[in-house]
TrEMBL record:
Site description Transition state stabilizer, residues in chain: H224
EC number: 5.4.2.11
InterPro entries reported for this sequence: His_Pase_superF_clade-1, His_PPase_superfam, PG/BPGM_mutase_AS, Phosphogly_mut1
Protein name, entry field: phosphoglycerate mutase (2,3-diphosphoglycerate-dependent)
UniProt-recorded Gene Ontology molecular function terms: phosphoglycerate mutase activity
NCBIfam families: PRK01112.1
GO biological process: glycolytic process
Keyword set, alphabetical order: Glycolysis, Isomerase
Residues involved in substrate binding: 50-57, 63-64, 100, 154-157, 165, 181-182
Family: Belongs to the phosphoglycerate mutase family. BPG-dependent PGAM subfamily.
Active site residues according to the UniProt entry: H51 (tele-phosphohistidine intermediate), E154 (proton donor/acceptor)
């Protein structure tokens, strides 16, 4: 009986290994098919991801530029985001200077088919930048550059940072807090308005990220609700009124393609259980989309 049990156990383990190997091969094949398709149509891809749930998101506190890590749920969201984008090509990654953005990017990459090693390029000083770029040509060929930029940080909420949103509304009134949170050009005390956040985030996007896409590179940006809302306002040519109504879920990838100077919103690669949520507004519906050899098929939910 013991011998039979051992044999059956070994046989099961071998079957499981074979199945895992087959899935990995299929995933790799799908990636190459997608990559070839994008090359044929001369498109580059842009993936935008809001970080997973942070510890202050969980507590319903204004976070802004305070450097707070992810919760367990946020870790799970980051891993799920990685599963959604695992077959999309990546050449360069941009992150903010805040740990929740960095954790999300690194965790997502653990699920990506790519075997390249992400290397964070430091730009705090010329010396730091130089030191982080010194490594062999062989390792350079098998790595993905990760560029850290404070300009992609969350909107600075000033004196609201660290305070509970519900209690702040009770103190200052719901209408006033709503203006601070959702107006385009109204800033909280000693903080930034969305317009100010847009100024730095979009300027950085135009100067550093868009040229990568123009060069045919496939780019991922992992940042924050308001820095990404700012970038999406630029990409989708939203008005200041439309962007106010734009909500982004934590840990949900948003996919764009870039071709001949134009950005096309492709929605969110769907997860295993539900449609990918792009936004909840009357202007921007929910989308479920897939990349199939460079072709897009859109369903409006």
């Amino acid at each position: 009986m013991v011998k039979i049990t051992n044999y059956m156990g070994d046989h099961y383990v071998q079957q499981k290994k074979d199945a895992t190997s087959t899935r990995q091969q299929n995933s790799s094949c799908l990636h190459h098919i997608v990559l070839i398709g994008l090359q044929l149509v001369n498109e580059s891809t842009l993936i935008l991801i809001r970080h997973g749930e942070s510890m202050w998101n969980e507590k319903n506190l204004f976070t802004g530029c305070v450097d707070v890590p992810l919760t367990n749920k946020g870790v799970e969201e980051a891993i799920e985001a990685g599963k959604r984008i695992k077959n999309l090509p990546l050449d360069v990654i941009f992150i903010s200077a805040l740990i929740r953005s960095q954790m999300t990017a690194m965790l997502a990459l653990t699920e990506h088919h790519c075997t390249k090693v992400p290397i964070i390029l430091h730009n705090e000083s010329e010396e730091a930048k130089l030191w982080s770029e010194i490594h062999s040509k062989d390792t350079q060929a098998h790595s993905v550059p990760v560029i850290k930029a404070w300009q992609l940080n969350e909107r600075m909420y000033g004196e609201l940072q660290g305070y509970n949103k519900q209690k702040t509304a009770e103190r200052y009134g719901k209408e006033q807090v709503h203006k601070w949170r959702r107006s385009y050009d109204v800033r909280p005390p000693n903080g930034e308005s969305l317009e100010m956040c847009l100024g730095r985030a979009v300027s950085y996007f135009k100067e550093h990220i868009e040229p990568q896409l123009m060069a045919g590179k496939h780019v991922m940006v992992v940042a924050h609700a308001n820095s990404l809302r700012s970038i999406i306002m630029y990409l989708d040519e939203l008005t200041s009124q439309e962007v106010i109504n734009l909500e982004l879920s934590t840990g949900v990838p948003m996919l764009y393609t870039y071709k001949e100077g134009k950005f096309v919103r492709r929605g969110s690669p769907p997860g295993s259980m539900e449609a990918g949520v792009y936004a909840y507004t009357e202007y921007l519906a929910c989308y479920r989309q897939r990349v199939d050899i460079g072709n897009t098929e859109k369903e409006q939910g």
